[in-house]
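Q: Sequence in, structure out?
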Amino acid sequence: DTGTAEDMLRNVEHATAQILNLYKTDPNTRYQLCITHGNGPQVGALFLQNQMCVEHGIPALPLTFCGAMTKGYIGYMLQQCLYNQLQSDNELSARSDIKGAVTVINQVGVSMHDTAFQNPSKPIGKFYTQSEADKLATEHSYTMMEDSGRGYRITVGSPTPLKIMELDAIRHLLCSSHIVVCAGGGGVPVIMDDDAQQNKLYGMDAVIDKDLTTVLLASELQADTVVIATDGDGIWVNYGNPDGYKLDTVEVSELERLYTSG
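A: Exactly. Output:
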C-alpha cells in the first residue's frame, strides 16, 4: 500500500467485514460495539502536507488539528463501509441491535505536567532514511527516532490518557444500538488540569497511544471484552532487539511490571 485513499478504503472495508462477522457467530446475543483505531501514518502525512503548504502562503495547522481531521475521515470510511455492508446483508440489516454507525471525535484529557511533552516517544508519519531524518531534524527541528529497524520517523510527545471527555455521549449512543467509532488515534489530547484557565479545555500538540485510550475507554464503559487487533504475530517486549520475546498468556502483575519499566 502507498497510503492512497483507495488503499485506505480497501483496508477499512476488509476490517469492517471481519468486525461484522462477530454478530453472526451468535445471532441470539445482543452486542454493544465500540470501534477504536490508529491514525499514525495519516496524521504524520497530513502534518507534513500542512508544512509544505506554508511556502504557498497557506498557514499550517497544528498537530492537534491534523489529528482531529484524520480521526474524522477515518471515521467516515468506517461508517460508510459498515453502512454498505449492513445494507447488503439481510441477516445483519434485520437485527434490532444495529441501528447504524456513528463517529465521535472525542477529546481525551491529559496533564500539562506529563513528562511525555519533554520526552517525545510516539512515531508518526512515513519512514525516512537516516540522511533524510537528519535533514528534517536540522531544517524543521523535528525529533526523529529509529522505529523497529524499518527507518526513522518524526516523533512527538505521547501523554497518558486520563479522561474520556465525551464518555456520556458514547455511552448513550451504544445504549441506543449504534456502533460507535471513537477514540481514534488515541483521541484528541486536551489539557484538563485544575490550573487550566477558567476550566476551559486546550488542545495540545501530541499523539496519545491508541491502545492506552482504548483500555481506558473499555474500563470506563465496563466492557466485557477488549480486542486489540494487529497485523503482527503477537505482542512483543523489546521488539526487533536480540533480547526481544513474545508475550502469550501473561499475568496482570507482569503487565504492570512491564508498563512501569517503560
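The mean pLDDT is 90.
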